[in-house]
């Protein structure tokens, strides 16, 4: 078995995979690979797959498979899988960190101190306690966010067409209801034909004035131009995001210059512990195939 590691994983993973076959990172050897390991950077398109005639398995380290052409894989008989459980804690912790940073004015406070400013009177904080958090997508990651938000005393609403009842969040029947009731909204949806561009002018208008949006799901669920306008008008108080239309975002993205945007470079699944968990899952997957 020849295993190609195309993206950044834990540096100890090649040694752990050595018992299963030859492990390499040279993309020039794609045509030799039986197994391909990717994360977000590599796009396994139909054209990409044409350069991998011996490919039998793609393992995507992380949640979601929108960077893999699954139809092309199915036609070729290439198995596709991912590691959704591994990343739940890492992404949930980042979502909470972004959610905490906005009302606590942490970026402004830090920058002010760096500039020699003492903004004690200027920076007024608000609390998460007793605020309503709407969670769009209450799967593995959304559930971990719910557990952490509950510890802060937040009221929790959830919407997920595949989850009628939840152990922590009160499920609502429509996104409109969640939008109307939530002070904060955290997005944890995959990118599909239904979710692409779901947060545009109409959806934003249904949200509370002053809502805070946190997105550690997929950048393309947002209509960037509409969101930037809602931020400029003040209808949306802040947008905290770790995900973009592309990695890195196009310099022309209106969100890069919009007010009250807290930005991170897609680091949600990049914790040291998560990379180790992803490695554990990869080893488990290959171990089952070997047996």
Give a quick summary of the entry:
The protein is built from 10 helices and 12 strands. It is α/β, with parallel strands linked by helices and 291 residues long.
| H/E topology pattern | EHEEHEHEHHEHEEHEHEHEEH
Q: Roughly how many Å is the radius of gyration?
A: 21 Å
Mean model confidence by pLDDT: 96
| Side-by-side strand order of the widest sheet | 8-7-6-9-10-11-12
Helix content: 25-40%
Which regions are unreliable across 5 or more consecutive residues at pLDDT < 50? Answer: none
Q: What is the CA-CA span between the terminal residues?
A: 13 Å
Which structural class best describes the helix and strand composition? alpha/beta
Query: What amount of the residues lies in strands?
Result: 15-25%
What report would you give on this structure?
The protein contains 10 helices and 12 strands. It has helices spanning 13-17, 46-49, 70-76, 88-101, 106-114, 140-151, 175-181, 201-205, 224-233, 272-290; strands spanning 2-5, 22-24, 35-38, 57-60, 79-82, 132-136, 155-159, 170-171, 184-187, 211-215, 236-241, 261-263. The strands form 2 sheets. A 7-stranded parallel sheet has the order 8-7-6-9-10-11-12, sandwiched between helices. It has a 5-stranded parallel sheet with strand order 2-1-3-4-5. Helix 6 (140-151) links the parallel strand 6 (132-136) and strand 7 (155-159). Helix 4 (88-101) packs across helix 6. The longest helix is centred in the C-terminal third of the chain and has 19 residues, at 272-290. The protein starts with a strand and ends with a helix. The model has no long low-confidence stretch (mean pLDDT 96).
């Amino acid at each position: 078995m020849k295993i190609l590691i195309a993206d950044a994983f834990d540096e100890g993973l090649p040694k752990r995979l050595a018992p299963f076959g030859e492990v390499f990172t040279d993309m020039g050897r794609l045509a030799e690979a039986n197994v391909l390991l990717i994360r977000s950077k590599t796009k396994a398109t139909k054209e990409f797959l044409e350069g991998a005639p011996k490919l039998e398995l793609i393992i995507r380290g992380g949640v979601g498979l929108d960077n893999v052409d699954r139809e092309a894989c199915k036609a070729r008989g290439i198995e596709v899988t991912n590691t959704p459980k591994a990343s739940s804690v890492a992404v949930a912790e980042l979502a909470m960190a972004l959610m905490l940073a906005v009302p606590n004015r942490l970026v402004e406070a830090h920058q002010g101190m760096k500039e020699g400013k003492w903004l004690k009177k200027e920076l007024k904080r608000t609390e998460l306690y007793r605020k309503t958090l709407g969670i769009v997508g209450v799967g593995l990651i959304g559930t971990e966010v719910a557990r952490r938000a509950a510890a802060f005393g937040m009221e929790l609403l959830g919407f997920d067409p595949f989850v009628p009842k939840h152990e922590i969040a009160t499920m609502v029947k429509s996104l409109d209801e969640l939008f109307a009731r939530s002070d904060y909204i955290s997005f944890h949806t995959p990118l599909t034909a239904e979710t692409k561009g779901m947060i545009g002018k109409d959806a934003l208008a249904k949200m509370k004035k002053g809502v805070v949006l946190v997105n550690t799901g997929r950048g393309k669920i947002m209509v960037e131009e509409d969101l930037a306008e809602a931020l400029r008008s003040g209808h949306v108080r802040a947008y905290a995001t770790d995900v973009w239309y592309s990695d890195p975002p196009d310099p022309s993205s209106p969100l890069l210059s919009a007010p009250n945007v807290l930005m991170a470079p897609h680091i949600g699944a990049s914790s040291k512990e998560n990379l180790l968990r992803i490695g554990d899952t990869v080893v488990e997957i290959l171990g089952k195939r070997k047996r």
